[in-house]
Amino acid sequence: MIQTRAAVLRASGEPGSPPPFEGLAVETVALRPPGPGEVLVDVVAACLCHSDLSVMSGHRPRPLPMVLGHEASGRVAAVGPGVTRFAAGDPVLMTYVPRCGRCRPCAEGRPALCEPGGAANAAGELIGGGRPFTDGDGELHQHLGLSAFAQQTVVAQESLIGLPDDVPLVEAALLGCAVVTGMGAVANTAQVQPGSSVAVFGLGGVGLCAVLGARLAGAAQVVGVDVDERKLELARELGADAALPGGPDVVEQVRELTGGGVDYAFEAAGVAVAFEQAYAATRRGGTAVAIGLADPAARVPFSPADLVASERVVRGSYMGSTVPERDIPRYVALLRAGRLPLERLVGERLTLDDVPAAMRRLHDGVVGRQLIEIGAAA
After folding, report:
1. What is the C-alpha separation between 61 and 241, in angstroms, rounded?
2. Can you give the pLDDT at residue 378?
3. Which parts of the chain sit beneath pLDDT 70?
4. What CA–CA distance (Å, rounded) separates 354 from 25?
5. Which CATH number fits domain 2-176+341-373: 3.40.630.10, 1.20.1260.10, 3.30.70.380, 3.90.180.10?
6. Which of 98, 130, 139, 323 is deepest in the core (most CB within 10 A)?
7. pLDDT value at position 365?
8. CA-based torsion, 334, 338, 340, 345: positive or negative
9. How far apart are CA 289 and CA 295, in angstroms?
């Protein structure tokens, strides 16, 4: 067994109540070597995401105890029997839906909806079964097949994508969630067209990546919406033509700015009212895309008559409808060309021991991605 340090969540809260931050701590735990089809990864960097926070808050119930973390990069330390895609020393990106390649969604080119991968994630185990982390009381559950808030982790090879040697591994961690989710929703789910208008509601890491994606897609007008002025300023720096403070009048402001509503609206706040506003901000024939993970109990009122008469489209987007083997190399090419400024999305650079306090700051509201530098990039 390998001894490693990891951020372990032992208690979650109830929706509507503050998360029990004392339930998360960095501990020394045991990690077994990789089994068949599995890979031992030295984690280089990981980012905090609201998907981690939603497990802590109880909005996304998951079995506990659990090692958190799902947006990360690293290097292969060792491979188990039968691994053919990777070798020791390879730089890798982690993706939070493992892909079986055989179920109906995978066969249809929609691996983000992989059925065995989704079932394994919900059970807190690897797609091939099992949980590699343990403590003195037994197994620790795996978060989205990755559990990346750790010095080392064991993952299925189906959860990894190889990266070129010259890609900066620390910043590349953002490719694993913020970029694939935000930019993927623009490019894959909505397929934003050149010359169109776009509004993004919620300007965290995913929303800012949607702003970047809209600009790269050739949108003529990009509007960002958030309640935090600091996030609005960052959206302007990243290419938003207008940045509006969220509030009851923001739909009318968006519609006025865009001459009757946007072609595409993206909700990246994980708040039901934000999606309601995103839908209302679209023009007749427009498309509203839900990206954020709201409280499962939340509901949004719709008028079926309006949906029919206006021919609006409502879409959900999970992991940006990403095909990792196709899309990650595209984002890497943009990064190499200087057209994907990931470093500007980073707010704080922290250490593994900072994760519990950083999770509290994420709950309170931070600007930019909190990036945890765990291991050496070289």
Report:
1. 38
2. 62
3. 377-378
4. 10
5. 3.90.180.10
6. 98
7. 87
8. positive
9. 17
